[in-house]
Amino acid sequence: MDNTESIWRLVDAKRGGFEALSDRVWGMPELAYTETRSCAEHTAMLREQGFRVTEKVAGIPTAVMGEAGEGGPVIAILGEYDALPGLSQEAGVAEPRPLPGPGFGHGCGHNLLGSASLLAATAVKEWLAENKLPGRVRYYGCPAEEGGAAKGFMVRDGAFKDVDVAISWHPAAFAAVQEAVSLANTRIDFSFVGRASHAAAAPHLGRSALDAVELMNVGVNYMREHMPSDARIHYAYLDAGGVAPNVVQPTAKVRYLIRARDLVELRRLIERVRKVADGAALMTETKVSSKVVSGVSNLLGNAPLERAMQNNLDRLGPPPFDDLDRARAAEFQATLTEEDIAASWRRIGLPMRKGVALCDVVVPLEVRGAPMMGSTDVGDVSWVVPTVQARGSTYAIGTPGHSWQLTAQGKLPAAHKGMVHVAKVMAGTAVDCLRDPALIEAAKADLAARTAANPYEPVLSPDVQPPLDMSVTAA
Question: How far apart are CA 130 and CA 190, in angstroms?
């Protein structure tokens, strides 16, 4: 791996403190909008590194922003630090071994995500000072990516209005520029209210809210044949109305997650789901109300920034994993299926190579695989700011996202090496933008062309507030 460029040397000089930050956040997993300790760790590091700090960005208690530099263009580097439920796991152990406690875990690697982004921002801060150049770098500590759409609220409330370029990344099996493909989505809670009664003596007097939810689910399931093949609809019961089968359930609540390839199709699907809910209420003589919990837009790509990021990856080469890293990764790969491993190669667009446990290549920009059609609130940022993302290799090839295996690998030396490697990619891309105003102008022109026919309209209307209690409500 090439470390000759000054910005990369600055990353290496700072890496130790940020590897430790990542490990601390790994050890305090917190769910969406409850990341109090994790945010405090990032805030303390921002102050320690000399950033000007703004807390409670967009009124969100666990969102923070640090800025350094003066004048010039503004480069934002985005970080996250929320965890997931049900993914607690002892570090470094290649068998399921949950830790005592509430069962939370960093099964998506956000402990690494936030730390690498803050490391990159710190290196850019030092680079600006050393070179005495105008320009500002910002680190945005963004909570609740896992379903809470915090960046969507931050965008809607103007947190990125003066940003010229946004850069981010995500832990992955391979080192690459991330293809800008994701699903727009929204979470909506549907609450049904009926009438309680004795289920045996007077069932005719009851009106079951639980029946209404079940009928809604049946109706949506019949919709699946008649919606775009890349759309997705999921649901979860939040309140099934009680545990007594001899009582007609007077209340019930279900949370729907509706996903589509773009905002136009998402809005169509939302209306169809709402009609199904109304129909279920009509059939059961209950009443239904709904509340939007969160929503995100699909990602927009940016060709000039993607080429600049790929250039940094090509100059750096693959992460500097050693034989011990590969041996540890092979232990985790042994817990996976052949399908897991093949899917990882297929997703990145490279032919499968058996016996390869860790990334040893840089994926070319023109290679396109079968994308993982998930969702991210980075999508909303990409509609208002030219945005580019990297994939940073931090775990064994084949490791499924949101798994105990991913949690277990979050503190290994390979994870640290991968996060430092991607920090260099992001910092180098930021420096390219600061050195070359034409790159920023080309990135802005690219964004303008992509949104000309379909301007940004937030999924989140002004009356929807950040669901600060969503992790409690859904528990």
Answer: 55
pLDDT value at 33 more than 80: yes
| Tokens of residue 184, six digits | 């727009």
Q: Could you tell me the two tokens for 80?
A: 């996250």
pLDDT at 2 over 70: no
Please report the pLDDT score of residue 1 as a whole number: 46
**Token pair in block for residue 266:** 């998402």
| For the chain, the helix, strand and coil percentages under 3-state DSSP, each to the nearest 5 | 40, 20, 40
The alpha carbon of residue 364 and the mean position of all alpha carbons in its chain are separated, in whole angstroms, by 23
Distances in whole angstroms, Cα of residue 75 to Cα of each of 53, 140, 208, 306, 366: 16, 11, 54, 15, 26
Kindly report, residue by residue over 118-136, the tens digit of the pLDDT.
Answer: 999 999 999 999 999 999 9
For 337, counting Cβ atoms within 10 Å of its Cβ (0-12 exposed, 13-18 middle, 19+ buried), the class is: exposed
Percentage above 90 pLDDT, the chain: 95
Query: What whole-number distance in Å separates Cα of residue 401 and Cα of residue 95?
Result: 16
CA separation for the pair 65, 78 (Å, rounded)? 9
Alpha-carbon span 56 to 62, nearest angstrom: 6
- In whole angstroms, what is the distance from residue 334 CA to residue 134 CA? 50
CA–CA separation, 106 vs 28, rounded Å?
Answer: 9
Residue 418 in tokens: 């991968």
Task: Kindly report whether the global pTM for this prediction surpasses the value 0.90.
Answer: yes
Over the stretch 65-84, which tens digit does the pLDDT of each residue have? Answer: 999 999 999 999 999 999 99
Give the span between the Cα atoms of 274 and 348, in whole angstroms.
36
CA torsion 41-44-49-54 (nearest 10°) is: 110
What sections of 132-204 are H helices per DSSP? 150-156
